Amino acid sequence: MPNYESKNHRGFHNDRNDRRQHSTDNHYRPTNNRRSNNRRRETPQVEVEVGQRFPLTIKRMGINGEGIGYYKRMAVFIPGALTNEEVVAEVTSVATRYLRAKIHRVRKTSPHRVEPRDSYADQVGGFELEHLDYPEQLNFKRDVVAQSLERYQPEGYRHYDLRPTLGMDDPYGYRNKAQFQVRRNAEGQVEAGLYAERSHDLVDLPTCSVQMPVTMHVMRAVVAMLQDLDMPIYDEEQESGIVKTLVVRAAAHTDDVQLVFITNSPKLPHKHDLLTRIAAELPEVTSVMQNINPGKTSLVWGEKTEHLAGAEAITEKLDGLAFKLSARAFLQLNPYQMEVLYAEAKKALDLQPGETVVDAYSGIGTIGLSLASVAEEVRGMDVIPEAVDDANANAEANGITNAHYELGTAEELLPKWIMTGFHPDAIVVDPPRTGLDDTLIETLLAVRPPKLVYISCNPSTLAKDLVTLAHDYRVDYIQSVDMMPQTARCEAVVKLSRRV
Ligand code: SAH
Fold first, then answer.
1. For ligand 1, atom 1, which residue shows the shortest CA distance?
2. Active site at which residues (predicted)?
């Protein structure tokens, strides 16, 4: 499983993985290339070479959105191909048990194929399904959850209710955060974008249909400023230069926009000129920060963040509450579907007055604080100090006195709270893609809260965790919510009830 927090990974990072910076697999590096190289040394099951072409019928879609067909009984993964299409495939890599290929030609086109809005959609990650019509994207996501659960066949979960995916009316322009690498190309032009699949080649993105328009407007204007001011852009090979990454995050329900320069050193040449131009030309930018991440590293963000201009954080509104958001704190990438997701989480929790609730993996406290008016007490935790500070500040700013957030891991803090006599009636867990820690699952099984809701951004780890939880819980239903249209990512809210 790739770590999107790493710059090495192709395409869009998924913010849910920013969290991994502090989780146990912080050092997880993308291994796709290494893995296939290793396997290439073994003998594949059939004689086949890179570059070879053959006709292929696509039988189904894989969890990453690729089409899957079979060549002499070997699975062939082919990005961009759709179920029931007939294509001429061209082999791009050969592993022992499977092949990767690209489309040479489509011979029979799926009725669900549409023209992608982004011309580079087949080059960078994050647009895996842009060629599939939206209703079919929603079916695909539900199906991925079904496939993942089927693979694990959790005992006792045979009759769960898997509900149709809740999608967007307009599945574009939703992404509140653009995190683009910058580079100076051979012609001396500053470019900003994402890495091409399985490479370190930057694809410049002048437009991007899934981004909130304001994020792209600010991004491109800042790129032009870097060019005009002849700013030293970081060069990975030479390990020289300053500006590595630009991050623009916008709030959907206030007019706040934050711009962050991630730099190789605390220095920011032409700082004064740059900030003057930003103030004059980009009045929509309300906060400018600098994050320092020295040297060659696979992580995008460094530990230190400094204030350059405007406010230090931006504010997003949700459900009548205001949420302060620091540069490094996690917030769902799709502010419109965030409301849908949380409404589903609330519905599944069905919290009653007087009940206590734990908001585990809380980020800036969005879920717990929106439950605070009903709950007797809310406790939450996160491993990012800024996020925990934001969560507590958000409680205070919204006049909430019965919610408290602590810094630490869910697996350490939950048992600690239990030991001191806190027995929550309900727990909502919203872990990173890696799923729940074994210790946390043990604690859940020991504590057996009557109400348990699992928000998952990775059906594979969800399925695995549900197997263990099946001992004490049954799945009432699974509601998938499309948080990232045009990508293969799935999010799901799972309502569990304790077996008596
Ligand atoms: N519930 C929040 C955040 C979800 S993202 C929201 O909806 O916005 C998951 C969060 O888990 C991240 O903020 C990350 O920092 C945090 N995290 C990662 N590993 C953790 C762990 N072991 N214990 C607690 N929090 C963790």
1. 362
2. 457 (nucleophile), 457
